[in-house]
């Protein structure tokens, strides 16, 4: 199934990274012929603390937000996006973006920068981004690369044998095909978890190694005909929440990591639901967390 989005929500905060998220949202909306919405949140907790010393702070924040949203809307329309909406709300960004606004707009993709703004009402998007991943019911694309948007050179797809990681595989392959990227499909053998067993650890590890190889063969067969000229498969070792965003990402020079949002329903479950938050917090590159169904019908 081709990666496709109908309604894309981009969270803005005035930071350089959110500008990159804006452009990634525009590019994706044009590719998918999607509706596009921008949101700006005035964090009332910060405003409440600062308002005592500056009664006009809320009005100033509203003016800043309005300007950011108007410029984003104009930019998207100038580039050819036909359906553009804006949302500005006051409240906690962590709850509003993935909850109320995403639901109101009907988003099937949320895009956000990975760190905070340089303005006085910083969003601290590092933690907000992880919260969006935790609570969203749709795909979440976190933009963290230091350079402006460009075709991805190396896409790292993390798999664990679950249905949602198969969706992540198809999503990652589709992006790689479109952007002519090389692909590395990685299964991480959770050795800290396995080593916690008191008995027969070596036998268990060997069993998991065989299972990992079998899984990668399954993913290899699913990748046949995807139109990717450079694709490799590997088993890595360690804690997935650390290995994927740091060691594996560095080893394969990834500028995009694609992973499912939840783990396997089997005995060797790797709990990618919690790993996905760690990817957002630890990765130095862009991260796409997949919840939508991209399995062939």
TrEMBL record:
<protein>
    <recommendedName>
        <fullName>UspA domain-containing protein</fullName>
    </recommendedName>
</protein>
<dbReference type="Pfam" id="PF00582">
    <property type="entry name" value="Usp"/>
</dbReference>
<feature type="domain" description="UspA">
    <location>
        <begin position="152"/>
        <end position="291"/>
    </location>
</feature>
<comment type="similarity">
    <text>Belongs to the universal stress protein A family.</text>
</comment>
<dbReference type="InterPro" id="IPR006015">
    <property type="entry name" value="Universal_stress_UspA"/>
</dbReference>
<feature type="domain" description="UspA">
    <location>
        <begin position="5"/>
        <end position="144"/>
    </location>
</feature>
<dbReference type="InterPro" id="IPR014729">
    <property type="entry name" value="Rossmann-like_a/b/a_fold"/>
</dbReference>
<dbReference type="InterPro" id="IPR006016">
    <property type="entry name" value="UspA"/>
</dbReference>
């Amino acid at each position: 199934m081709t990666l496709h989005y109908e309604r894309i929500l981009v969270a803005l905060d005035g930071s350089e990274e959110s500008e990159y998220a804006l452009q990634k949202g525009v590019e994706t909306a044009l590719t998918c012929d999607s509706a596009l919405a921008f949101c700006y949140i005035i964090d009332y907790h910060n405003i409440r603390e600062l308002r005592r010393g500056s009664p006009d702070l809320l009005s100033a924040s509203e003016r800043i937000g309005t300007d950011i949203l108007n410029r984003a809307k104009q930019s998207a329309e100038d580039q050819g996006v036909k359906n553009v909406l804006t949302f500005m709300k006051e409240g906690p960004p962590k709850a509003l973006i993935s909850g109320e606004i995403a639901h109101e707009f009907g988003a099937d993709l949320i895009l956000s920068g990975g760190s905070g703004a340089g303005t006085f009402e910083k969003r601290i998007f590092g933690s907000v981004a992880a919260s969006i991943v935790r609570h969203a019911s749709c795909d979440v694309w976190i933009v963290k690369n230091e350079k402006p948007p460009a075709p991805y050179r190396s896409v790292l797809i993390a798999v664990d044998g679950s249905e949602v990681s198969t969706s992540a595989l198809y999503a990652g392959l589709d992006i790689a095909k479109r952007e002519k990227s090389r692909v590395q499909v990685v299964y991480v053998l959770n050795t800290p978890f396995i080593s916690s067993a008191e008995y027969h650890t070596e036998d268990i590890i060997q069993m998991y190694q065989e299972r990992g190889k079998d899984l990668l063969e399954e993913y290899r067969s699913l990748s046949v005909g995807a139109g990717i000229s450079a694709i490799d498969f590997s088993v890595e070792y360690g804690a997935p929440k650390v290995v994927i965003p740091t060691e594996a990402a560095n080893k394969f020079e990834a500028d995009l990591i694609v992973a499912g949002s939840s783990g396997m329903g089997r005995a060797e479950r790797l709990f990618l639901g919690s790993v996905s938050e760690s990817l957002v917090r630890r990765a130095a590159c862009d991260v796409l967390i997949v919840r939508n169904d991209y399995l062939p019908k």
